[in-house]
Predict the structure.
Amino acid sequence: ELKNLAALPRFLATARLDIGMAGIAVTPERAGEMVFSEPYVDETLAFVVKDHLREDFSRWGNIRDLGPAPVKVPNLPYYIEQIKRRAPRLKLELLENPNQIEADMKQGAFDALAMPAESGSVLTLLYPKYTVVVPEPEIVKIPLAYPVARRDQEWSYFINTWIELKRRDRTIDALYNHWILGKQAS
């Protein structure tokens, strides 16, 4: 049984899975292990911070000025590399259990968490003492795509064609606007 993303390359390589679904970030490490479809949307690297820290995280220069401030970060080397490149003195603390994020937010257990803005915006609706900040300049975009089994090029072509059709008929935009941006929600 697939319990974490670390096992996904093996499941795809051994034909136990044909495709990985639901927001899988394309990183150089992952691209070396799996074949990906064309990206269907980008995530934006951001920080979920307590409201009073909004300005401190609004610009990369401000973040560098924080020095060794503690920031929680998922165990994704590509995300960590992008943050370290822009703010090398931050004290990055790996999230041991991503399922613990909501409980930590409820308790106010951290000041800042690095994560995609699109995911963070949902959390800030549930925990309004936090806000999402996308530091400027140098907005970092990370593509999302579907990893597919290496052995099946026809399947990969089909997925790419499907993504392109959904992009052109604006289905992807409509879903993004509804589920990520909350537009047209009642």
